[in-house]
Amino acid sequence: MSNKHKILDAILEQGMLPLFYQDSEEGSVEILRTLYKAGVRVFEYTNRGKSALPNFKKLKEVRDAEMPDLYLGIGTIKTPADANAFIEAGTDFIVAPIVNPAVAEIANKIGMLWIPGCMTPTEISIAQEHKAMLIKIFPANILGPEFISSIKDLFAGQLFMPTGGVEINAENLKTWFKSGVCAVGMGSKLISKDVMSKGLYEELFDNTKLALDLIQQSK
């Protein structure tokens, strides 16, 4: 089995892809350690600030030393330059908020999992043309579960993951999975500004455990 398929299977098994960005290197490392301790084995750091690349390199270093079974990916990749920079830094997979065929080409050339963000059926179709195995529905808080229910039969067999509008709530999660998603992206609803600014790592640990348990019950 290729690494691309192993990572995809890990996302499907976990049912959740946690994601965040923080300027602080130390804070980023502590959040990663907390998520891992709570059971996370696939994680996305987002390219949303000036410290994203150096912080990612540090996370990779910590991952290699402490968490060898964790898949560490990078999100918010919109350009080939960003893709190449983080591939060089050792990312395991790439997540994007858009469909950029040039980024897809880079990922596909090296057999790397590329998860593009789509908002319309046309974007989904273009993503499929460029071999997207998993598609991020974004912004899912605007589109809602009804969007997935409405389009899933048009794209039979395609795997979808909403990001935005996903909450640590049994009813919310069951609604998303019932609509036809295979996993959910979990950002600020899990790794909140308070968690980051106040170092509320015990709260993050508890909420991560809860989210993982509720997701397994909702599948």
Automatic annotation (TrEMBL):
Quaternary data: Homotrimer.
SUPFAM superfamilies given in the database record: Aldolase
Q: Show the CDD domains listed in the entry.
A: KDPG_aldolase
**A GO molecular-function descriptor:** lyase activity
Q: Which domain of life is it from?
A: Bacteria
Q: Do you know which InterPro entries this protein is assigned to?
A: Aldlse_KDPG_KHG, Aldolase_TIM
> Which family does the record claim for this protein?
Belongs to the KHG/KDPG aldolase family.
Protein name as annotated:
Bifunctional 4-hydroxy-2-oxoglutarate aldolase/2-dehydro-3-deoxy-phosphogluconate aldolase
- Name the keywords, alphabetized: Carbohydrate metabolism, Lyase
Q: In which pathway does it act?
A: Carbohydrate acid metabolism
Q: Which organism is it from?
A: Pedobacter frigidisoli
